[in-house]
Amino acid sequence: MVSSKEADKTRPPRPKSNLKPGNKKSNDKFKSAPNFAKKSDGGHNKFAGKPVCSGEPEKQDWNKFKQEKKELKLKRKSTRDTYEITKEAKQIYEKLRCRKTENKDQLVEQMFKILNVGDTISKIVKAHDTARVLQCMLKHATPALRVEISDKLLPFVVEMCQSKYAQFCVQRMLKYGAPATKSKLVDSLFGHIVRLAGHSIASGLLDIMYQGGTRQQRTHMRQEFYGDLYRKAKDSSVKTLSDTYKEATNMKASILGSVKANLDHVANKNLVDSSLVHCVMLEYLRACEDEEEKLEETVTAFAALVPHMLSTKEGSEAAVICFYKSTPKNRRAIIKNIKEHLLKIATHEHGHVFLISLLNALDDTKATKKAIYDHLHGDLKQLVGNQYGRRVVQWLVAPGDTTCFHPTFIRVIEEGLAFGKKEKETRRKEIFEQIEAPIAEAIVEDAAFWLSNSHIGLVTADILNHIQGVSYQKAVEALAQVVVQPDWRITADADGAQPSQQKKGHQDVEDIIAEATKQRKKLTKIEESSDDDDDQSEQEQDKPDKEEAENGTVKPKRAKKEPKPKPAKEEPAKPLVKGIEEAGMHIVLKKILKNDGKQQVEEGQSFGEQILKHLTSDGLKAWLSVNRGCFVLLKLVEERPQLLETSRTAIQAEPEVSQLLRSQKTQGAKLLAGKLNIGK
């Protein structure tokens, strides 16, 4: 070991500087620079070393700068071999995109002759400006020319699907192309399905093509997820994943491993909201049912993706399997992930099935109410107003009731009972006891809504058929006050589409384009007239007064008015009819009265008694003048015979009312008069 002192002695001497103390060579680059502030004020000048303006700064000619920049950009573009061609095509495109232009198909032919030179079309399809030119050509071309343009683009479809701008050309081909073109479009993607399914842009297009493809094409698209073996060579005998290892069971592990890897690739990019991916996922989960370890690993990975799996039937089934096979920890994670999407799931065609399956399989009923029903209670009206949301409410109130659900649906849902510990009836009773009072309170708060149309009325009847005691009494009292109003009106059909809104049959592509063009022309006329008015008012505001111009004192311009937002399209008002006359509501009232006869309530608290209590002479006249109104009163008396005398007294107390009943010739009036023994 050498000490530090010895080491210092052995070091070579440092070379001496040639600079003398008073003649030091400075490396400060700012010291000799001209027009710089000198250091003063005792060495504390904060502007030391900064330049000092010797005069007025030179002004930049921005117009010249912009012109030079524009020329440079034009020069750079002109070096491309397609510049002159695309420039000429875009000039025609400006005419083509105008709504008032006629004979657009001729302009498209002219553009195609210009662009159909070598590989020009394939070069310009990915650019942001020329891609719009091709989209317009695909829309307005004749059918024969549209096929020719599509054939030019088909070899580049895989790259186009992944392009930010060319993807819109693919969408135009799918929208306006002939069936043969669409079929070729799907076939051109084979060999790249898994890669496109994991691409943020291409995945959406792939989903559209999968849904619109033939059965064989959909099968071949799924096969590419089964492994590299099926990427280039398709097997028509393989319909599902289980067919791949039916004859060679030793291949099952490797095939399932390939499927898992491909699904993980798509899932890692959060692109599982696709019909194709959902189908493959369902097949994989069914194939793994015998292998508990692999299934548990898969279910854990898919738990966070459940909200994205509920947009299709297959995805919903896969989500149900994931929930059934999950551990309690994973179940809590799934419930947590869907909590913020509950209303959307409950009102979805396939999502509501998953929610009902979840409600039927959970053992912790208190947690079920807290995590699910409490979040839906605030949107109960919106839930009941939707055809799928109603089913969720009906399952909460009347689970497994064959009057509300098809036996096949009940059988599928009850498969989940095998994955719970509690008995079926105990679980359902505990859930209903917790939600009975909140639902009754919701009916009391807005009773008119719960009888606003026949569909919602049927849900109300099902609720009244199961709630009891004080909750029932409060609900029927509020509903009776709505029913007896003389001017009670409801919507004729909440879910039925109006004639103008009904889906049209098959139309030719040319008819669709022509119809869309007519509608756009109408909108253009309205927009132009409103724009002209705005321009005139703006010009008037911009003109200075003569006196101000002469004096040279022009007031600052007022800010231009913001363009008025276009009014949203209002839905046509649904027709209103008298509630007592509507056929569906007539069935609802009879159903409620039938159940009312079985209810054990205090005297004067039944639905029938509440109706007679609040029914005025005007209300009686409105009911007796209608055949269905007479039948409702007849049903009321039949279900509760003790109200016969009360009904007779109410009608005979008013001579006009009793005379009206006797003068009616409808079948309901005759039967009611006979039942009440009110003769002529």
TrEMBL record:
Listed Acidic residues bias regions: 529-539
Q: Write out the ranges of the annotated region (Disordered).
A: 1-61, 519-577
Q: Which residue intervals define the domain PUM-HD in the entry?
A: 88-439
Q: Where is the composition biased (Basic and acidic residues)?
A: 1-11, 562-577
Q: Which InterPro entries match?
A: ARM-like, ARM-type_fold, CPL_dom, PUM-HD, PUM3, Pumilio_RNA-bd_rpt
A single BP term in Gene Ontology = regulation of translation
Name-wise, this protein is Protein penguin
Sorted UniProt keywords:
Repeat, RNA-binding
**Which SUPFAM superfamilies has this protein been placed in?**
ARM repeat
Entry keyword Protein biosynthesis: no
Q: Name one GO cellular component term.
A: nucleolus
Q: Which Pfam families match?
A: CPL, PUF
Stretches forming Pumilio repeats: 152-187
> What does the record give under GO molecular function?
mRNA binding
